Amino acid sequence: MARREKAGATAAPKPKKQRWKRTRQLKQVYDMTVRVDPSAKWWLLLAFAGPIVLGLVVGLLVDHPIYFTILGVLLGVLAAMFVLGRRAESAAYMNLEGQKGAAGAALSSIRRGWTVEQEPVAAEARNQDMVFRALGRGGIVLVGDGPPTRVRRLLEAERRKVARVVPNVPVHLFTVGDGGSEGEVPLRKLASRVQRLKPQLTKQEVAAVQKRLRALGGIRPPVPKGIDPMNARPDRRAMRGR
To answer: Distances from the Cα of 99 to the Cαs of 53, 94, 109, 177, 200, in angstroms?
Structure first.
């Protein structure tokens, strides 16, 4: 009996810890958002205070100020949370812009319906241009991460490689940019642009295509500088254990 009481006493604080963890995460999101977008705090204040003021005014008109004020507070909290979510998402993309691998991070934000490779499927070691790949019912998506005029060559090479493995599957090419030319998509709109692609494959076909794409493999690690693989010789003394 004593053991049960002790177990119950240790299990009780868990909900409190979870609430504290959520509060801390919410504060971290707020701090990150305001740091990148200082105007977000004023939009949050407006979203929270607007329903309260409106509720108070309506309450005074119908002679129920307390009830409508409480209702305004609840609506204000919901509105502030909604605005924080949207502003935090925009701030996250603003923070990613200009960083290497930003296109892969944007693709990874797609929640369902698409399989996104976590690592780039092609890369140029000299200038660090990369290509990321996603697969869904809309087909195969290749996204270039780098200056659009320079990364197109890498994108086209990867498209030809994919076409040899799955010749009848639609392949969509995108580059992250300001949207000024064809195929350029702003980073913050990349995930939504991919999700809007018209479905052209069944779920069974997507699974079959994924198996074939695995045959392409990943990026081969570069040979260390100063080593010529054609002249490399094994250490025979080490092989004999000496």
So the answer is: 42, 10, 16, 13, 32
**How far, in Å, CA of 241 to CA of 182, rounded?**
61
The predicted-structure confidence for 127-162, as pLDDT tens digits, reads as follows 788 889 999 998 999 988 888 778 888 888 888 988
Q: Are the C-beta atoms of 175 and 184 separated by less than 8 Å?
A: yes
Please list, in sequence order, all residues whose beta carbon lies within 8 angstroms of the beta carbon of residue 144, skipping any fewer than 6 positions away: 103, 129, 130, 131, 151, 152, 154, 155, 173, 174, 175, 176
Tokens read off for 208: 């079959």
Q: What is the percentage of the chain residues whose pLDDT exceeds 70?
A: 77
DSSP E strands, the chain: 114-116, 122-124, 129-136, 139-145, 171-176, 184-185
Q: Are 174 and 154 spatial neighbours (Cβ–Cβ below 8 Å)?
A: no
**CB–CB of 18/38 below 8 Å?**
no
* Strand 171-176 relative to strand 139-145, pairing: parallel
* Cα–Cα distance, 101 to 106 (Å, whole number): 9
* pLDDT tens, position by position, 211-239: 888 876 655 444 344 433 334 443 434 43
